[in-house]
């Protein structure tokens, strides 16, 4: 292989495939390699045989829950915001032509020992079972304040500068109770912990507006999800990259990241072949040991515990929904991190009819990770089968600009894609010498194709 590439991409996770497609569309010559035989990396979607083989090697799947090919079970399920950045990327790159989406039926939050629907409008806040009468009025005023806010009209600011004041001050201004702050901050703004309270309120304002505008787009919930599982997304972006000249190699071992005497990236060795490029982008698993580097290029920041659960019924107390996003805010169960629960079903072509796939995940805080999932598992009702995994969350230790080695972050415990999008922007900026990723706008009616 004496061809020279602008970029080599290692791993076919969603982050890597999005970057590969964006670089290809930008006119770059891209080679994409993965040691696995399938797309998606750690976030792949597996059929029933693959699922049992991964978690219980040598054991055959049961015969009473449908056919092998009925299944595309996400190892790490993520939902997309209908108006979110990833949806815009799909539309901008025209990947929507390969995919079809279905709405997630409802968004819930766990509060005071029970499951309640997340209100996303002033009217829903007034009807919500999450709050008492007086708190509903305060919440209604808070949501009206957000909806009416105009940057250039001080009359809408109520004396608050959201670029300066911390979010906790805005909550104080409306007198919102701790439980209300919980569901707004964690189930709507999708913050991972409570540190957002001390940061300027603009960040949370933007996140809540994204939630409410996504909610308004199709009703029911702000989330959409690809038919046949999240593994379809990397494949869609891979197809796009190929149209623009990108080359894909699956089942290709990566034996060495080759660097020069100056420490800069030279190429990737697979067996006795070395292919050269100006830079490499890849997931952390490919950079555990880079020769010539005295310091590690990847560090572990935390561990995530996940349980994939097969159910024969929808999650109780969710109005028999065929799909839900359910968040247990940290404070509700005395934790430092939220617990995320997602559920999809045969309606999404990811499992047999009358089967539901629920996943419970959180960041590990103790020496007994599986026990930490108990508050979530207890909400699922009888579990037909369960697969538990613990994986390291890893991130790069350097920007990578000195070496032309740009490493992405592991997929986190959240059940939505917004953190993946942040990483795409981050890596793009590092790899292109500080250029922001700007998506050109397209015709407004070109949205994701939603199956009702």
TrEMBL record:
InterPro entries found in the cross-reference section: FAD/NAD-bd_sf (IPR036188), GDP_dissociation_inhibitor (IPR018203), RabGDI (IPR000806)
GO CC entries: cytoplasm
GO terms, molecular function: Rab GDP-dissociation inhibitor activity
Transmembrane spans: none
Superkingdom classification of source: Eukaryota
Cited Gene3D superfamilies: FAD/NAD(P)-binding domain, Guanine Nucleotide Dissociation Inhibitor, domain 1, Guanine Nucleotide Dissociation Inhibitor, domain 2
GO biological process: protein transport; small GTPase-mediated signal transduction; vesicle-mediated transport
Family as reported in the entry's similarity comment: Belongs to the Rab GDI family.
Protein name from the UniProt record: Rab GDP dissociation inhibitor
Annotated organism of origin: Acaromyces ingoldii
